[in-house]
Amino acid sequence: MKLIADNLRITKPMIREALKSRDTRPVQELVKRCAVQRPFALDVNTGPLGKNPEAEMRFFIAAVESVTTLPLLIDTSNPMAMRAGLEAAKNRVIINGFSLEPRKLEMILPLAKEFDADIVGFLLYPDSRVPKNEAERFEIALELMDKAERAGVARERVIIDPVVPPLAWTDGIVQARAVLNVIRTLPEVLGFAVRTIGGISNLGTGARDKAKRRLLEQSYVAMLASAGLDFALMDILDTALVQPARVSALLAKEEIFSWAMVPGPCEALPQDTKSAPINPNFKKG
Amino acid sequence: MKLIADNLRITKPMIREALKSRDTRPVQELVKRCAVQRPFALDVNTGPLGKNPEAEMRFFIAAVESVTTLPLLIDTSNPMAMRAGLEAAKNRVIINGFSLEPRKLEMILPLAKEFDADIVGFLLYPDSRVPKNEAERFEIALELMDKAERAGVARERVIIDPVVPPLAWTDGIVQARAVLNVIRTLPEVLGFAVRTIGGISNLGTGARDKAKRRLLEQSYVAMLASAGLDFALMDILDTALVQPARVSALLAKEEIFSWAMVPGPCEALPQDTKSAPINPNFKKG
C-alpha cells in the first residue's frame, strides 16, 4: 500500500487564497512539508474551480512542480481544468477521476487515452449515488472497465476507487466492510491484478471526537492494507495515521521482515526538503 | 472479536511465587485488575506445573474463582492438571488445548467430552512443528475435526487456534498473512461457522523496541478482527493494544454504528472491581 498525500485541497482556506491571489509560496511550502513524509504521490484537488479554471489549474500545477518531481493526481470534476492540468504537468500524472456519470464518460475518460495516463474510476452510479452492496459494486466496476475499453483506454490503466463511506451513515459500517471485501475480491472478479485506491478521511466525516476518529482510521487503514489496497489517500502530515498506515503496509506486503523496517512511532523523518524522485514503479505487484 | 486476558501466566514471577507459596492475594488482585477491563474470559496458564500439579491447579482455579465468575480457559499441557482444573472449576471452562500430538489426543481431547466443554485445537503437526502454508493448515484443521468427532466431541466444540507466528522468523511475515487467510476462509473450508482464537503476544517475540512492537500489534489485531477472528488473547491491561482491538472488533462486527460505541483512547474504565458476569453467549454469530 502506497500513501498519497491529500493535503493539497481547495477546501483549505490557505490553498484557496493562494490560488485566488496567484501566490506560489504557500503552495510550495505545503508541498515541501508533504514531500518530507515521502508520499508516493500528491493529490492536487482543485474542485470545480472559479472563473478561469484553466488558468488556475495551470498556476496550481506549476507551483507544485516548482518544488517536487513526485507524481500528481489531478483531482477535478471540471473537464477543461483537467485538460489544462494534463497539458501543463511535467511530472507523471494520474487522472482523478471518472465515473459512470455521462459528462465524465464523455469529457474526462477520453483524456486518459489522449494523455496516455492512468485514471481513477469511482464505484458510483451515473447520478453519483453510492451502490448498496458488493454485487452492485462489482457490476459498476465491470461497466467502468467496459467504458474504458470502448474509449481506447486499457483496463489496466483504470485504478478503482470503491469510495470509503462515512461511518455516520445509517449503514456506514456495513458499507465500510463491503468496501474491504470489494478491494479483496475485485482482482478475481475482473480477472486481472486491478489496482485500487481509497481515501481514509471520508470514514470519519461528521466525527466531533478527534481521538475516536483517529482510532477508527488507524484500525480501518490496517484493514484496507490487509485487503490489498494499493493506494491510500490521506493527510500525510498526520503522523498518528501515517505511522500505522506504513506499518500495516509492511505487514500486508513485505516478504521478509526485520525490525529495522518498522517505522518508530512518531519517528522524525530526515529534515530533507528536497523533492522525492518519481517512483517508476507505479504497478501492482 | 472478544478479548481474553492472557495475564494469568505461570511465566510471571509474581504468579509463580504465589502458586509456590499458596498465596491467594496476588492472584486475586491481578484477576480484579483484569476484570475491570471487561475481558470475555481469563486464560489460566500454568504451564506443565511443578511437583504437585493437581494441587497447584486446584489452588490456582480456586484463587481466581474467589473473585470472578468470568469464563476460564484452562491452559496446561499436563493432562492430570487439566483434569484437576476441570473438576475444580465452578465457572464456565474452555480447555486450552489439544493438537495432533498423540499424548494430547489421548489424554486431553477426551476431557472435552467428559466435561462437556469447548476445546481449543492448535494448527500444529504432531511434533509441534508449525505448518508451512495455508494448505497444510487446512489439512491439519480437517484432521483435528476428525479426531474430535472420533472422540465423541462435536466439531462445533472445537475452537481453532492457527498459531500466530513471531515476525522475527525468517518467513514470519508470510506466515502471519497465511494465518489471516486461514481465519478468513476456514469456515468455508470446514463448511460451518468454526470459531477461531489467536494470541497477539507471539507476533512480537524477540522485539527489543517496545514502541515498534506495539505498532505492529495494533495493526495486526485490526487485520485479525477484519479476517473474522472470534477470540483474541492479549494483555488486557495494555490499554494501547486493548483500545485498537475493541475499535477493530466494532468495525469488523457491528451492524449499526454510533460514535458513542467507540471507546476513547486510553479511556478510563469504571473503577468497578466486582467480577463481570458469565457471558452466556459463547457462540459464533
How would you portray this structure in words?
The structure is a homodimer of 285-residue chains. Chain A has an eight-stranded parallel barrel with strand order 1-2-3-4-5-6-7-8, surrounded by four helices. Helix content of chain A is 44%, strand content 14%. Chain A starts with a strand and ends in a 32-residue tail after the last helix. Mean pLDDT of chain A is 91; it is low at 268-285. In chain A, helix 8 (172-190) packs parallel to helix 9 (210-227) and helix 9 (210-227) runs parallel beside helix 10 (239-253). In chain A, helix 3 links the parallel strand 2 and strand 3. With 285 residues, chain A is of the alpha/beta class. Chain A has ten helices and eight strands. Chain A has helices at residues 13-20, 24-36, 53-65, 79-88, 102-107, 109-114, 134-150, 172-190, 210-227, 239-253; strands at 2-9, 41-45, 72-75, 93-98, 118-122, 158-161, 195-199, 231-234. The first copy, chain A, is globular and about 40 Å long. The interface between A and B is large, with 42 and 42 residues.
Present the secondary structure layout:
The structure is a homodimer of 285-residue chains.
Chain A (H helix, E strand, L loop, with lengths): L1 E8 L3 H8 L3 H13 L4 E5 L7 H13 L6 E4 L3 H10 L4 E6 L3 H6 L1 H6 L3 E5 L11 H17 L7 E4 L10 H19 L4 E5 L10 H18 L3 E4 L4 H15 L32
Parallel strand pairs in A: 1-2, 1-8, 2-3, 3-4, 4-5, 5-6, 6-7, 7-8
Helix pairs in contact in A: 1-2, 2-3, 3-4, 7-8, 8-9, 9-10
